[in-house]
Amino acid sequence: MKYRRSKEFIVIRLDEDDKMVESLEQVCLREKVTSGAILSAVGALKSGTLIFRRGCQVDFQEHLEIIGGGNISSVAGRPKVHLHIAGGNDRGTKAGHLVEGVVTVFAEVLIQVLEGLGLKRKRDNNLLKQKVLNPYVLEP
Predict the structure, then answer these.
(1) Domain segments of the chain: what residues?
(2) Please, what's the b/e burial string for 16-42 (b: 16 or more CB within 10 A of its CB; e: otherwise)?
(3) Which CATH code, of 3.40.50.720, 3.40.50.10320, 3.30.1330.80, 3.40.50.150, is assigned to 2-139?
(4) Cα distance between residue 114 and residue 5, in whole Å
(5) Mean pLDDT of successive 10-residue segments in the chain (140 residues)?
(6) What pTM was computed for the model?
(7) Can you tell me the distance from the alpha carbon of 99 to that of 67, in angstroms, rounded to the nearest whole number?
(8) 3-state secondary structure of 24
């Protein structure tokens, strides 16, 4: 993984075998970013875990060309990436919340840092009761 930052933008290149969500959270931790917008995520994954809907989390082990977007907030003072992707190959498409994905070839991500917003997430027990697998809500 390599990245470069200007005042309000971070450009990240993830390489073969990098974990996408973990890597983005590492960059945000290093750069002290807890509020941001993932403007673009493009590239390819070879495996990972997606949440498709309430209570439905599925692992995949296949090449997917992806596009995505999301945001960065904080949970307990640490960066939290919320990234949705759509991906496809010659066998079809998948889309959903990316729990984690392993890069194949490369992926490129553009983050806009949102200074001064202080975006935070908190665990929502109501969502847990509904079997939502990522039960953190944004406190705008």
Answers:
(1) 2-139
(2) eebbbbebbbbbbeeeebbbbbbeebe
(3) 3.30.1330.80
(4) 13
(5) 97 98 98 97 98 91 98 96 98 97 98 95 88 85
(6) 0.93
(7) 15
(8) helix
